[in-house]
Write a structure and sequence with these properties.
By secondary structure, the chain is an alpha/beta fold. Helix content is about 40%, strand content about 10%.
């Protein structure tokens, strides 16, 4: 692993970003994100994937290029939950998804095979498992993506997936903290609200995330949901109350914390505001998953806050130390 310069503002800023891009090769756009923006990670979607050979070449080339630029190895992430959210399709193994996992062996088999296939491609992070609890009496937005059962059952199956992925060399990211299983609107298109007290979340929704923490999950993704009885002003992904006070301090989670995609419609703030909130909450990584002006705006905002706010510079170095430690633990 490259010796990291914790005094370099561009490097500190870039490691806080996980970015999407257009194309299926190490093209000029992707080189720009790595060389000039110093990005800490990239995330892949269906348009980035044509075949196994192409995907392997893309991932390996991007990771090597980062190292050649004096950067730590890249996070190369993908959403491979199975079912409706699986970026890798045939010839990769297609699983029916979390609602169809009935036994621990089902979960272990999914994790073992998925880890092997992702690792073979050069992918090192899976934005899975979904740890949301979807009650049967709610028309949950997550009903086709969540494990079936109560919080304890979700915890059992989810931690089996976490252990299996990470034993196979793939960093697991539990989502969507603090739980969106009781929401009915899609944060890709709306800002959903969940009118729950913190005591309600602790009784149900937070149980699987506590289990994920105990299982050593590499990352936790924040939801874009507004919980007005807990933080009336900011959705969880922009909320110090949720990311720092609840997840870091109260629950004691020491792994990576990241936002969901800041390009979603649930984010009704400009990018500068988003980055200010993310850095104040000491969220490690901001996801901007689609090519466009939001990427440049996010990077510029991180640079500006690191340069002009001493407290954000120091907390930012702490976040990047956590990112580098995670990379070293998985990539050596």
């Amino acid at each position: 692993m490259t010796q990291f310069n914790f005094q370099s503002l561009p490097d500190l800023a870039g490691q806080r970003l996980m970015l999407g891009f257009d194309g299926q090769t190490l093209n000029a756009e992707l080189k720009h994100l790595i060389k000039n923006y110093r990005t800490g990670g990239i995330i892949l979607f269906r348009p980035n994937i044509e075949s196994a050979d192409q995907l392997r070449r893309l991932c390996m080339d991007a990771r090597k290029y980062a190292l050649d630029q004096g950067l730590p190895d890249l996070f190369v992430a993908v959403d491979q939950e199975g079912g409706p959210v699986a970026r890798l399709r045939k010839p990769f193994t297609e699983f029916p998804g979390n609602p169809h996992m009935k036994t621990l062996e089902d979960a272990r088999e999914f994790a073992r095979i998925t880890a092997s296939e992702l690792s073979d491609m050069g992918i090192n992070m899976n934005m899975a498992p979904v740890m949301d609890v979807a009650p049967p009496d709610v028309d949950s937005i997550m009903k086709d993506r969540a494990f079936t059962g109560n919080a304890n059952r979700v915890s059992q199956l989810g931690t089996a997936v976490i252990h299996g992925l990470q034993r196979g060399g793939i960093m697991a990211v539990a989502k969507h903290f603090p739980g969106i299983g009781r929401t009915v609107k899609d944060s890709h298109f709306f800002l959903p609200e969940l009118d729950a007290e913190l005591s309600d979340l602790k009784q149900i929704d937070l149980v699987p995330f506590e289990a994920a923490k105990k299982a050593g999950v590499s990352g936790i993704m924040m939801s874009h949901i507004l919980y007005p009885k807990i933080d009336p002003d900011w959705q969880a992904s922009l909320s110090k109350t949720f990311a720092y006070d609840l997840l870091r301090t109260d629950m004691g989670y020491q792994g990576l914390v990241m936002t969901d995609d800041l390009d979603m419609k649930a984010i009704n703030h400009d990018m500068d505001t988003c980055i200010q909130r993310i850095m104040a909450a000491q969220i490690d990584m901001a996801l901007v998953c689609h090519a466009g002006p939001n990427i440049a705006e996010a990077r510029d905002a991180v640079m500006r806050y690191l340069e002009n706010d001493r407290e954000m510079f120091e907390s930012g170095r702490t976040c990047v130390k956590r990112i580098i430690a995670a990379k070293e633990s998985f990539f050596g």
